[in-house]
Amino acid sequence: MLLIDQCSGGHRKSGDVESNSTRGHKSSFTATLGLVVHAAADGIALGAAAASSHTDVEMIVFVAIMLHKAPAAFGLVTFLLHEGLERNKIRRHLLVFALAAPLGAFVTYLGIIQSGTETLSSSHSTGLAMLFSAGTFLYVSTVHVLPELTSHSHDGGGGGQFSRKQLFALICGSLLPLFLTFGHHH
Questions:
Q1: How far apart are CA 102 and CA 69, in angstroms?
Q2: So where does this one cross the membrane (predicted)?
Q3: Which range (67-71, 81-85, 177-181) has the least confidence?
Q4: 108 with 48: CB under 8 angstroms?
Q5: Rounded to whole angstroms, how far apart are CA atoms 31 and 37?
Q6: Average pLDDT, the chain
């Protein structure tokens, strides 16, 4: 999610020099893209849970997704209306958002079932898919803090953008716990 946000120009403060129409189009695309990726990650978690033999996990994942889809859709539409998008464009953004989770679930479920291997259908892969989904949710829910963090940058990465060095350090720091767990089993 961070890479998508940084590649699309980052989040900008409302006092930016860009014109409102350019800023509105770019920020509406970024908001929709972020929520679509998050919804697809939700679908991945749901597809992995459905492929497992644990119906209780499948139900928990389904209920968790349903509880936050309506507020996310409402927030997306409200944001797009505030950005001044036409209603037909808002409907298209909402349709893409609405289809992301079911398509992600369907593709993941088929991928796990078609592979037929026990390692992919284990609760371990379901847990990893849910962690990925939760990570995208945490990023989307805290992204409004990033402009405050990056606006004081002295390395030329201000205005909602990290410098390449900052982005590299952030990604390495995020992946460090993964590398530390290799070869460590309980």
A1: 12
A2: 29-53, 59-82, 94-113, 125-146, 167-185
A3: 177-181
A4: yes
A5: 10
A6: 75
CB atoms within 10 A of CB 51: 22
- Amino acid 18: pLDDT: 42
- Dihedral (CA of 46, 51, 57, 60) sign: positive
Contact yes or no for 83/27 (Cβ under 8 A) = yes
CA atoms within 13 A on the CB side of 126: 22
The per-residue pLDDT for range 144-166, each reduced to its tens digit, is 545 555 555 444 444 557 788 88
Say how far residue 92 (Cα) sits from the centre of its chain.
19
Per-residue tokens: 165 = 């060095």
Of 127, 133, 137, nearest to 51 by C-alpha is 127
- Mean pLDDT to the nearest integer, 74-79: 89
Token representation of residue 115: 């592979």
Cα dihedral sign, 59-114-179-132: negative
CB atoms within 10 A of CB 166: 17
